[in-house]
Amino acid sequence: MKRRRSATVLVLLAVLLAASAVAGLALGPVRIGPGKVLDLVLAGPGARGGAFASIVWDVRMPRVLLGTVVGAGLAVAGAVLQALVRNQLADPFLLGASSGASAGAVLVLVFGTAAGAGAAGFAGGAGAPLAAFAGSLAALVAVYALARRGGTMTTGRLILAGVAVQYVLSALTSLVLVLSARPDQIRSVLFWTLGGLGGARWDELALPAGALCAGTALLVALARPLDLLLAGEEGAHTLGLDTGRFRAAVFVLTSLVIGVLVAYSGAIGFVGLMVPHAARMVVGAGHRALLPVAALGGAVFLTLADLVARTAAAPEEIPVGVVTALVGGPFFLWMLRRSGRSEGVAG
């Protein structure tokens, strides 16, 4: 029964993702009919269609694909982090992972460029993803260490630790913005703090897509030990899981995925909070079913959020992180109130 439900949900989400992608390719400052979009997509990258073909394949397609990859990755990372800390309020953004990744990438982009041409090449190549990964991992470790006391972790400490680390990293990013004198660097810093998919290019899709596929495959393979963590420390130990080593390994893997994604999209919040929670209500807490559903749900959500960001105030574009925050903020308050009634957030 559960497998049938999961399969049905996956099919429905796949159809919704396809519809969202078509809408993302069709809508914008230049509107293209859905039929024309489908013709151009089926004809392939070399399709003849003049300006329409160029808009679909060179401008909008990379953006839609990047939104799909980033949304799926953030949702999967959020679901895994919620299992690692046994708290449904956990999220890559709320736990400082996205802010850490942004701070690391910004430091490399600004100071790497200032150091010279060689460093600039490093910053524009592998430097930003590597620095984003290091910042993401450092932020997660700091929040986990601050929130854990006496072998236990409460919702209140987790949220406070995440907020504190976020403030520190945001201050660091703001300091870099103040010290940066070049307008192009200032624009880059603003991109990292607000998030956006407007810079998507075909030649930059391989690394985030590879990180998503490899990371998700590994995490799905670890579904059983992730399920064991839901039973608590003692229960997982009794069932043979070395929780310390397992948590450390999965923290590193999750940080790598988050760091690579944020290196290409900037800090986009609340995707990893809302989507796993919604997926859990539909297919349950078992990670073998939860992670694929969360991946597709995250892809749909961020694709639609980016569509709103591009069209709501056209011809101006709203950072997609603003759109997700406007949706995610009230959702987070609702979850916090619900969590507070059940366990108390001040403990």
Describe it.
With 347 residues, the chain is mainly α. It has 14 helices and 2 strands; from the N terminus they run αααααββααααααααα. The protein has helices at 2-26, 34-43, 51-84, 97-115, 117-147, 155-179, 183-194, 206-221, 223-229, 233-238, 243-265, 271-283, 287-311, 320-343, and strands at residues 148-149, 152-153. The chain has a two-stranded antiparallel ribbon. Helix 1 packs antiparallel against helix 3. The radius of gyration is 20 Å and the shape is globular. The two termini are 38 Å apart. 48% of the residues are buried.
List unreliable stretches of 5+ residues: 114-124, 343-347
Main β-sheet, in a few words?
2 strands, antiparallel
State mean pLDDT (0 to 100 scale): 83
Helix content: over 70%
Distance N to C terminus: 38 Å
The number of distinct β-strands equals: 2
Order of helices and strands: HHHHHEEHHHHHHHHH
Strand content: under 5%
Q: Which oligomerization state do the chains in this entry correspond to?
A: single chain
SS class:
mainly alpha
Number of helices: 14
> In angstroms, what is the radius of gyration?
20 Å
- Strand arrangement, largest sheet? 1-2
Helix-strand layout with pairing:
Blueprint: H1 2-26, H2 34-43, H3 51-84, H4 97-115, H5 117-147, E1 148-149, E2 152-153, H6 155-179, H7 183-194, H8 206-221, H9 223-229, H10 233-238, H11 243-265, H12 271-283, H13 287-311, H14 320-343
Antiparallel strand pairs: 1-2
Helix pairs in contact: 1-3, 1-13, 3-8, 3-11, 3-12, 3-13, 4-5, 4-6, 4-7, 4-11, 5-6, 5-11, 6-7, 8-11, 8-13, 12-13, 13-14
